[in-house]
From TrEMBL:
Source lineage: Bacteria, Pseudomonadati, Pseudomonadota, Alphaproteobacteria, Acetobacterales
Record-linked CDD domains: Tetrahydromethanopterin_reductase
GO MF term set: oxidoreductase activity, acting on paired donors, with incorporation or reduction of molecular oxygen
Protein name: LLM class F420-dependent oxidoreductase
Keywords, sorted A to Z: Oxidoreductase
InterPro entries, per the entry: F420-G6PD/mer, F420_G6P_DH-rel, Luciferase-like_dom, Luciferase-like_sf
Species of the source: Roseicella frigidaeris
Segments forming domain Luciferase-like: 7-291
UniProt superkingdom: Bacteria
Nucleotidyltransferase recorded as keyword: no
Pfam family, one: Bac_luciferase
Length: 318
């Protein structure tokens, strides 16, 4: 059975709007919601970056049924993994076990603010591996001391911890990260419809859910949707090697200056056609992802949620 989620883009909406949007998404029948965890928007036009963990506390109290998750939190620089474990346990208690912790290796844009520089990709994955060990150990109550190459724990204990361990899903853009998710995580998160990621996850022992984010932009006309997607989401076309390395919104503005609306529309399903959006979603379902998180780009969240409720959900759940 495929579950369908709603993406809370904290780079595009303030905290109160995120809460209101999720309440409406719950009413519309979404199964889960994933919030981005950023210190900065990608580009200035997006204009927001509230603390995801404060918003999650509000979301837990403002809803009753819908699942919650981070997609994704980076626990290697800006946060110590012990603090992420504590936050995850707290949100799980506040939401009555509706929370899943999504983790990833992060981007310079958000992590350089801690003033510790930005390591190469090899060290980032080593840091993430240690961080997952710490977080999983604290969430299970089986770890209190740890001394790794990058992180340490000294007599740590989560005093408020749910009886059911918070599941931890790990983001992967390639097979190596997918294998890490399979070895140490409880689920996989991806943004591309690549079956090989799921295969690497399963081969490494992963048996949990596979989440995928699908970017859409509903609007009354295709031209309007393309313009909206370009205004708020052109940074996404730069590719992961660029996204992981640029330190500021000015850098993303420069890197995306020559990207046209038509180019963005090749990656983001644009327009009023439900069938076009269903075609984009189906690529991820066919690849084997069982949790599909829909990202509506831009300010028209209420309109998109209504379209999901009326046109997309009945066909998706068929």
């Amino acid at each position: 059975m495929t579950h369908f989620g709603y993406k809370l883009m904290s780079e595009e909406h303030g905290p109160k709007d995120l809460v209101r949007n999720l309440q409406r998404a719950e009413q519309a029948g979404f199964d889960l919601a994933a919030i981005s965890d950023h210190f900065s928007p990608w580009i200035e036009e997006q204009g927001h970056a509230p603390l995801a963990w404060s918003v999650l506390g509000a979301l837990a109290q403002a809803t009753t049924r819908i699942g919650l998750m981070t997609a994704v939190t980076c626990p290697i620089m800006r946060y110590h993994p012990a603090i992420i474990a504590q936050g995850a346990a707290t949100v799980a208690l506040l939401s009555d076990d509706r929370f899943t912790l999504g983790l990833g290796a992060g981007e310079r844009l958000n992590e350089h603010v801690a003033g510790q520089g930005w390591p190469g990709i090899g060290e980032r994955h080593e840091r993430l591996s240690e961080a997952i060990d710490i977080i999983q150990g604290l969430l299970s109550g089986e770890l209190s001391n740890y001394r790794g190459q990058y992180f340490s724990l000294d007599q740590a204990k989560l005093y408020d911890r749910p009886q059911r361990k918070v599941p931890v899903a790990v983001a992967a853009g390639g097979p190596e990260a997918a294998r890490l998710a399979g070895r140490k995580g409880d689920g996989l998160v991806a943004t591309e419809p690549k079956r090989e990621l799921i295969e690497a996850f399963r081969e490494a022992g992963g048996s949990g859910p596979c989440y995928a984010e699908v970017s859409l932009c509903w609007a009354k006309t295709e031209a309007e949707a393309q313009q909206t997607a370009h205004r708020y989401f052109r940074w996404s076309v730069t590719g992961w090697p660029v996204q992981a390395e640029l330190p500021t919104t000015r850098g993303f503005e420069a890197a995306s200056r020559h990207i046209t609306p038509e180019v963005v529309a090749q990656q983001v399903s644009c327009g009023p056609s439900a069938d076009r959006h269903l075609e984009s979603i189906s690529k991820y379902v066919e690849a084997g992802f069982d949790h599909i998180i829909l990202t509506q780009v831009g300010p028209q969240q209420e309109e998109f949620i209504a379209v999901f409720e009326r046109d997309l959900a009945p066909k998706l759940r068929r």
